[in-house]
Q: What sequence folds into this?
């Protein structure tokens, strides 16, 4: 078998066999097939697409290119949630304990953040003592006993994906649906998930700017999952503005606690209920999404979700008293209100730019080596569609430096006030096939 023949076959729009896909993935992983040939194939895939079977084969070839995590020692159906990213996306912090309170096992592998906000692990480290450096045995033991644990990314998972991802970045082939879908799904499957819930973001702050593209990606991933024996569902949700009010690590943990108590922001609560319902149904703890939603609202109301969050923190060395006393988390030295310059209605909040404003304060990393300041960030006082009066605070800055003119300038540039505006629809579509 020759790589040049595989490239030519895809260039001519033909379907690659399972063997051909395995050949190119294995050869690229072990270094026997060079970058330039894989670049050519990636571009051919970009233009000629792949069938559902090819996409499933590509995903599994990438899964098999490295180690996989075996979670079979954990009882029950392990459901994992993946979000295509966003600003102020605190859903993972809420969903873990929330569905675990209904006996759904959540064995979460998370990373650190690069870019405008911290990753899930950075956020959790705002809780004193919390750590993800636990052994695989401890991890499995905690999930069997208490249903929820988070571990740092371990092992050599999907090395083929890492190589192809880096190559796509510099060859103009990032926006290829089969390549994006197989990349995301290979990571989830290698991490041991039995079932997968996907939160595909659309809008200005998202990777998929249009709802049409987001739908295409969601359908592609759901089909891959179902074709390789992992039940998968997806939600298309809005990221044209940040989710919730908090952007910053300790601030987002506090917001997650409020949400678990049923007192969180409307949009974050709604998204958590939609995604959580899918997780509960896939774990076979409820028959319908409606029934699952009622069960989730119940554990928010009766305090079980909050108790589960405390248990989760204590199990991994964290100080669970922060749930009742959030002021024990790192606090910013300066709290500065930003007043609206005119009266009207908030018409636009540019999510990624507001994320960058929080990063300027130290809430995120520009490079892997950067230290994160867990206390700092922004609190939105108004969202799109909310009325605001001139001089009224519409954002609050939490900073550890006195001069925040650069951050204020970024906020004024990226939050627009108009005469009228309508709040965007949060959940666009739910996809199950």
A:
């Amino acid at each position: 078998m020759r790589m040049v023949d595989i490239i030519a076959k895809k260039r001519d729009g033909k379907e690659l066999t399972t063997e051909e896909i395995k050949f190119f993935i294995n050869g690229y992983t072990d270094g026997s097939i060079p970058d330039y040939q894989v670049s050519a194939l990636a571009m051919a895939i970009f233009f000629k697409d792949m069938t559902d079977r090819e996409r499933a084969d590509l995903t599994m070839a990438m899964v098999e290119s490295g180690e996989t995590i075996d979670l079979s020692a954990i009882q029950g159906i392990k459901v994992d949630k993946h979000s295509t990213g966003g600003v102020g996306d605190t859903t993972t912090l809420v969903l873990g304990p929330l569905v675990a309170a209904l006996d759904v096992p959540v064995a979460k592998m998370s990373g650190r953040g690069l870019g405008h906000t911290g990753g899930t692990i950075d956020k959790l480290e705002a809780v004193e003592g919390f750590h993800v450096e636990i052994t695989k045995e401890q991890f499995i033991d905690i999930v069997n006993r208490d249903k929820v644990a988070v571990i740092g990314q371990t092992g050599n998972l999907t090395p083929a994906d890492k190589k192809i991802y880096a190559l796509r970045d510099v060859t103009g082939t990032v926006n290829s649906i089969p390549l994006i879908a197989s990349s995301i799904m290979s990571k989830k499957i290698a991490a041991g998930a039995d079932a997968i819930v996907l939160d595909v973001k659309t809008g200005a702050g998202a990777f998929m700017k249009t709802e049409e593209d987001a739908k295409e990606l969601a359908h592609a991933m759901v089909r891959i999952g179902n074709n390789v024996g992992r039940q998968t569902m997806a939600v298309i949700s809005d990221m044209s503005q940040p989710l919730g009010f908090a952007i910053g690590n300790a601030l987002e943990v506090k917001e997650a606690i409020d949400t678990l108590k049923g007192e969180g922001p409307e949009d974050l609560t709604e998204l958590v209920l939609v995604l959580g319902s899918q997780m509960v149904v896939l774990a076979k703890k409820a028959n319908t999404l409606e029934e699952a939603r009622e069960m989730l609202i119940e554990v928010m109301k009766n305090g079980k979700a909050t108790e589960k969050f405390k248990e989760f923190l204590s199990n991994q060395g964290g100080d669970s008293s922060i749930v009742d006393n959030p002021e024990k988390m790192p606090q910013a030295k300066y709290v500065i209100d930003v007043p609206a310059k005119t009266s009207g209605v908030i018409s636009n909040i540019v999510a990624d730019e507001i994320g960058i404003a929080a990063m300027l304060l130290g809430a995120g990393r520009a490079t892997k080596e950067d230290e994160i300041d867990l206390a700092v960030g922004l609190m939105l006082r108004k969202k799109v569609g909310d009325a605001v009066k001139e001089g009224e605070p519409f954002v609050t800055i939490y900073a550890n430096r006195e001069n925040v003119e650069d951050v204020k300038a970024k906020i004024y540039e990226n939050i627009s006030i108009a005469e009228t505006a309508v709040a965007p629809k949060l959940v666009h579509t739910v996809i199950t096939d």
User: Anything to note?
Assistant: The radius of gyration is 22 Å. The CA atoms of residues 277 and 292 lie 5 Å apart. The longest strand covers residues 195-202. The mean pLDDT is 94.
